[in-house]
């Protein structure tokens, strides 16, 4: 066999993998488009469902729930955004299955057994975070925002005890702006709830350790505070909720990584590969670095 033949033979598996990847991507895109079309046909009921937190906050103040279009095309773009979000949620299980079927043949049985639970936990945690954002965070946020409306006895604004010109500052929100903010809450909390899944998977792969995560806890607190300030609006209550939730998830991640390490240590001991002296030396190094 010539050198050219060896190169062609070695490149053949790569071409096959690329062809399979293209097929998986095409199937995923088609599933996403089908989900978009389905959600576009029912975009109005979905949008009405997404307005519940706002409508409840307005109802508590005795106000009607009304959003407006500030441009002729805004209604169309609202339907498109609802379709994008809904289509991705509907298609995600199928997209995840395509990803798994592409990756699984290259894994050992033990690796499949280790990786599959994380594939199942990821969408669950995203839905949990999205639900928490929609049912807990957004009502508090919109209640806070609507508190800046001002009403006088007969529609006049009062300043320093002196009646000013008749004025009422009331909410007349854009449907697109409301949807953008709501989606931002849902996606932000959905992604933040992936933290235990991500860190536990990294711990399973040996990329992070429970001691290492504990050593950088103070830096994690600063990072979470910055994250809360970036992904949430200037609402202190919402930022505190996000910080408490994400920091709690970080501590849960440390606990899960510690459990993964304990199981790995038990397996190594059973196989006779675990060195107690080396483990103690590594622990001392980590402790010195944390200081």
Strand order of the largest sheet: 1-4
Strand content: under 5%
Strand pairing plus helix content: what structural class?
Answer: mainly alpha
Report how far apart the termini are.
59 Å
Helices and strands, with pairings:
Layout: H1 3-41, H2 43-50, H3 52-60, E1 67-68, H4 74-103, H5 109-146, E2 156-159, E3 162-166, E4 173-174, H6 175-192, H7 195-204, H8 210-215, H9 217-231, H10 236-271, H11 276-290
Parallel strand pairs: 1-4
Antiparallel strand pairs: 2-3
Helix pairs in contact: 1-4, 2-4, 3-5, 4-6, 5-6, 5-7, 7-10, 9-10
Give your account of this protein's structure:
It is a single chain. The chain has 291 residues and is mainly alpha-helical. It is built from eleven helices and four strands, in the order H-H-H-E-H-H-E-E-E-H-H-H-H-H-H. It has a two-stranded parallel ribbon with strand order 1-4. Strands 2-3 form a two-stranded antiparallel ribbon. Helix 5 (109-146) packs antiparallel against helix 7 and helix 7 packs parallel to helix 10 (236-271). The longest helix is centred in the first third of the chain and has 39 residues, at 3-41. The relative contact order is 0.09.
């Amino acid at each position: 066999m010539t050198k050219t033949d060896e190169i062609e033979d070695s490149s053949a598996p790569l071409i096959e993998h690329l062809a399979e990847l293209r097929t998986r991507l095409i199937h995923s895109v088609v599933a996403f488009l089908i989900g978009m079309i389905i959600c576009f046909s029912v975009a109005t009921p979905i949008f009405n469902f997404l307005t519940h937190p706002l409508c409840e906050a307005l109802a508590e103040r005795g106000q009607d729930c009304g959003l407006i279009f500030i441009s002729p095309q805004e209604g169309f773009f609202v339907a498109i955004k609802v379709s994008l979000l809904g289509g991705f949620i509907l298609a995600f299980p199928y997209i995840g299955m395509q990803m798994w079927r592409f990756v699984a043949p290259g894994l050992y049985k033990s690796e499949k057994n280790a990786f599959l639970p994380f594939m199942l936990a990821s969408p669950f945690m995203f839905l949990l975070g999205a639900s928490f954002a929609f049912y807990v965070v957004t009502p508090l946020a919109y209640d806070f925002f609507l508190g800046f409306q001002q009403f006088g006895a007969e529609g006049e604004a009062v300043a320093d005890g002196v009646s000013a010109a008749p004025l009422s500052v009331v909410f007349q929100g854009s449907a697109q702006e409301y949807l953008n903010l709501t989606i931002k809450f849902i996606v932000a909390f959905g992604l933040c709830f992936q933290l235990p899944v991500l860190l536990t998977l990294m711990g399973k792969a040996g990329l992070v350790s429970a001691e290492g995560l504990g050593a950088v806890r103070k830096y994690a607190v600063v990072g979470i505070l910055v994250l809360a300030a970036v992904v949430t609006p200037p609402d202190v209550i919402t930022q505190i909720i996000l910080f408490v939730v994400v920091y709690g998830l970080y501590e849960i991640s440390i606990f899960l990584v510690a459990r993964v390490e304990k199981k790995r240590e038990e397996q190594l001991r059973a196989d006779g590969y675990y060195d107690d002296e080396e483990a103690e030396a590594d622990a001392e190094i980590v402790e010195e670095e944390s200081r």
